[in-house]
């Protein structure tokens, strides 16, 4: 299963990742980081919808997002 991890301390709440996510699973949370920005999150029940595409990480200007791709996703990319 692919998944994303957010570094809350670096997030500025720009929401570029929410617009880039084709699965529309990244949302603004109600939590604030130490700088006072609302951070983004993926609900636990939605994480299995992550495709591992890494569009969110590519558009993030602050290197907040790390994408872990499942081996099944990697195998499908290699076959294409």
TrEMBL record:
UniProt domain 4Fe-4S ferredoxin-type: residue ranges: 2-31, 41-70
Name under which the protein is recorded: 4Fe-4S ferredoxin iron-sulfur binding domain protein
What organism does the record attribute this protein to?
Desulfohalobium retbaense (strain ATCC 49708 / DSM 5692 / JCM 16813 / HR100)
Q: Which PROSITE patterns match?
A: 4FE4S_FER_1, 4FE4S_FER_2
Q: Which Pfam families match?
A: Fer4_7
Query: GO molecular function, one example?
Result: metal ion binding
Sorted alphabetically, which keywords does the UniProt record give?
Answer: Iron, Iron-sulfur, Metal-binding
Note the SUPFAM superfamilies from the entry: 4Fe-4S ferredoxins
What the entry lists under InterPro entries is as follows:
4Fe4S_Fe-S-bd (IPR017896), 4Fe4S_Fe_S_CS (IPR017900)
């Amino acid at each position: 299963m692919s998944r994303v991890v957010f570094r809350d301390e670096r997030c500025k709440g720009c929401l570029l990742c929410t617009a880039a996510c084709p699965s529309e699973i990244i949302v603004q949370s109600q939590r604030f980081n130490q700088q006072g920005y609302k951070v983004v999150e993926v609900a636990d029940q939605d994480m299995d919808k992550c495709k591992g595409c890494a569009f969110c990480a590519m558009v993030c200007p602050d290197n907040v997002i790390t994408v872990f791709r499942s081996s099944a996703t990697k195998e499908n990319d290699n076959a294409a």
